[in-house]
Write a structure and sequence with these properties.
By secondary structure, the chain is of the alpha/beta class. It contains 16 helices and 15 strands. The strands form 4 sheets. It has an 8-stranded mixed sheet, sandwiched between helices. A 3-stranded antiparallel sheet has the order 12-15-14, covered by helices on one side. Helix 2 crosses helix 3, helix 9 packs parallel to helix 10 and helix 14 packs across helix 16.
């Protein structure tokens, strides 16, 4: 089972250290099955409880993962296999449609907001002991949640969506717990879950979001204790949860009130499609909204709401770490909201023109493409590595699908914010625009025959 590597030790700490040495040296590769606890205890001549304590320590450190009767395995190591490293760099002369960033031309100028906040700060500097959530930020965030039908709940602030998700998962789950995640899904999240010692369970999605039967399977068969769902502008597919799909998912979640629901609405402010929140009948829930796509990734601000216990747990733990998210940044975002520095309709229309134009151009060439909302288009391909290389040779840098998928087929992600506004022109003239036509031609040459099952 372990090849030539021999686990040693008499105490739990020694056994755990022995396994960690094997993992660090490469003698115990990711995915390697460890001996059952009783079997290893017999070999080492120790009590089975000692081995159980060692395995528990290894799970908490994120070295191994346990899958019920299937046993304990060495966990893949995000530090060396981070999906973010699966990327291509665009050399000079190659257009970059790979990086997932918003169009800088659609982001608001920040100097006036910062200047106003700095002026007020000079009058009354922030000090220790103040509330972690700025009053105006909290009021405006809650009003926006109310407008979209999000259930009532207290407001919290984190340094971006991923920070919120990490804190919420840590507040409720323990190493070894299963978490249902979208497949394909956000690469950073697919790294985060195992890095916390949790076990990701892939859930297929289609253009309307996660498939309800897949969520049910993840909970009933795989024991998922949390479900993470992107409401709109899903990365990488552009999926958007429709009203009908939301009803179906609510029915599934209502039957499992002990399962934690985490909703990511990072598309707020850049999409035209309405939000259909899933929370309501669930006992534990959180909905997170980052300002990264609409106002700028470097602001590092996300507002979240949820059930009172979850929000209290997250804010309580936050107080013991960073304490709070900079109230200067909170007040800057609140100023941008209050002055309507971004017109969501204009931003959504701009991304929509590029996205829809590209999807239509690909369809005319017989290429399957997905992108109902947001700034990304997902294109299944026959050979992912070959498609990325051929597109690069044609002058286009795209994101390899391996960054975003677990069990789904090969694909590439195209970020339309990398297409200049001038490439799409007016809605009526999209089909004849050179930039989109050139990209569609290149993708059609690279994609090859569509895989038999590439997407939910």
């Amino acid at each position: 089972m372990l090849g030539e590597y021999r686990i040693e030790g008499r105490r739990a700490s020694e056994i755990a250290a022995s396994v960690e040495r094997g993992v660090g040296a490469g003698a115990l590769e990711p995915g390697r099955l460890l001996p059952p606890m009783r079997e290893l205890a017999l070999v080492l001549g120790v009590n089975a409880n000692t081995v159980a304590a060692a395995y528990r320590t290894l799970r908490e450190r994120g070295v191994i993962e346990t899958d019920g009767r299937r046993g304990s395995r060495v966990r893949p190591r995000p530090a060396t296999t981070a999906r973010g490293s699966i990327r291509v760099d665009a050399p000079a002369g190659v257009r970059d449609v790979s990086n997932g960033s918003p169009d800088p031309a659609l982001l608001p100028p920040l100097h006036e907001a910062f200047a106003e906040v700095a002026r007020r700060y000079a009058e009354r500097p922030g000090m220790y002991g103040e509330a972690p959530v700025d009053e105006e930020f909290g009021r405006l965030a809650r009003a926006a949640f109310d407008a979209d039908g999000v259930p009532a709940g207290p407001i919290g602030v984190t340094s971006g969506s991923l920070d919120a998700v990490e804190r919420v998962l840590a507040a409720h789950l323990r190493p070894g717990d299963a978490v249902a995640v979208e497949d394909p899904g956000w690469g950073s999240l697919l790294d985060l879950v195992p890095s916390l010692g949790l076990r990701p369970v892939p859930v297929l999605v289609d253009d309307e979001g996660p498939l309800p039967e897949e969520v049910e399977r993840a909970i009933r068969r795989d024991g998922a204790r949390a479900v993470i769902i992107t409401d709109r502008a899903q990365n990488p597919t552009g999926a958007c949860v429709t009203e009908e799909r939301a009803r179906e998912l609510r029915r599934v979640l209502a039957a499992h009130p002990d399962v934690l629901l985490v909703e990511d609405d990072h598309g707020h402010g850049i999409v035209a499609q309405p939000l259909h929140p899933l929370a309501g009948d669930t006992g534990r829930w959180v909905l997170v909204r980052s300002v990264a796509k609409a106002y700028g990734p470097d602001l590092r601000i996300a507002a979240f709401t949820g059930d009172a216990e979850t929000v209290d747990r997250v804010l309580g733990r936050q107080r013991l770490g960073p304490g709070w998210v900079s109230r200067l940044l909170q007040r800057t975002v609140a100023h941008l909201w209050a002055t309507e520095a971004v017109d969501p309709a204009v931003v959504a229309r701009s991304y929509g023109k590029r996205r829809d134009g590209l999807v239509r151009a690909l369809a005319r060439r017989g290429v399957e493409a997905h992108g109902r909302s947001g700034m990304n288009v997902w294109v299944p391909v026959a050979d992912e590595t070959g498609a990325v290389a051929r597109l690069m040779a044609d002058g286009w840098a795209v994101a390899p699908g391996a960054r975003f998928r677990m069990n789904t087929g090969p694909a590439v992600r195209l970020t339309v914010s990398g297409l200049a506004v001038g490439d799409v022109g007016d809605v009526e003239g999209i089909e004849g625009i050179e930039g989109i036509e050139a990209l569609a031609d290149a993708v059609a040459r690279a994609a090859g025959p569509a895989p038999a099952r590439s997407y939910g």
